[in-house]
Amino acid sequence: MKKPLLMGYLESWAPNTLTFTEAAQKGYTGIAMAFGTITGTDIGIYDNTFNPSPTIELLKEDLAKAKQAGAQELLFSVGGGENNTYNPHNATPEALAEALVTYCKDLGFTGVDFDIEIETDGDYLNALCAAIKAIDSSFTLTAAPQINQGPHESDLILVSTGNYQIYNQAIQNNYFDYLFVQAYNNPWPRLQSYTEKDVAFIAVAFDNLKKSIPSQTLFAIGEPASKIAAGDYSIYHGDDANKDIYQLMQDQYRSIMNDPQYGGAMTWSIHLDERNGFKFLNAMQSVITNTTVSSVS
User: Fold this and answer.
1) Is the pTM of this model over 0.90?
2) Is 294 buried (19+), middle (13-18) or exposed (0-12) by CB count in 10 A?
3) How many alpha carbons lie under 13 Å from residue 235 in its C-beta half-sphere?
4) How does pLDDT run across 135-183, given as a tens digit for each residue?
5) Which residues make Cβ contacts (< 8 Å) with residue 91, sequence separation at least 6?
6) Tens digit of pLDDT for each residue in 221-243?
7) Residue 178, SS3?
8) Domain residue spans in the chain?
9) Are residues 69 and 24 in contact, defined by beta-carbon separation less than 8 angstroms?
10) Fold exhibited by the domain 5-289
């Protein structure tokens, strides 16, 4: 059975940063490589290299050691905001699924994360997810949608960008094991007077999204690791910005952590968390392991 994750993304291009093994040893239990590439049925890595483990042999060894160090999910993430890496072109869903699963399992990834931030074909994504699960039902599938305001002000919707709800079919068909919801990109979603600048948005967004996410799917609300990790609409620019933001985030996750759909906490990125003294990691470990701490160090 899937468990809540302390989930983060490792930037493949970042120099002098953590390997999968080191991130797992620090305490991350879910780690995604940002980014893998899909070009038709050709599968690879952005700029052809994961810098912390720069050869295929070293990457395989790194992923194997990360599992030994406690990582539960090691994900091959495709998409991204600045340089989209999800380009199926004319590949059939079945052919792409075969290529993707073969590539990922050969390296040691446990699944694929779709971090798609463009307008694209939701029917195709649904068919691709179905084909992947048909090959191996235990292969983990996740997505990292953004949040937008729904047609009614009392509801949120999950999108790739704008109002494009490309994930909906695959979500409703229960193809995703986890959703890692980005709650730090858009200024307009508002619930109970809270926006993504407000720490309280974490819990109210979680409760609202439960109405549209199947009960079998775990999901985590994601926040940036530090002020420089996201734009002006993140919690580092809200009314709580001068308070102990990590303690406030911990309190929010603690308030929802007993929900059966609680998928943990997600951050962009592990590299930026490292640069900031692992403040996100240190704060969130207690709301993943169910241990109790009185304050954030």
Assistant:
1) yes
2) exposed
3) 25
4) 999 999 999 999 999 988 889 999 999 999 999 999 999 999 999 999 9
5) 40, 41, 99
6) 999 999 999 889 999 999 987 78
7) strand
8) 5-289
9) yes
10) TIM Barrel (3.20.20)
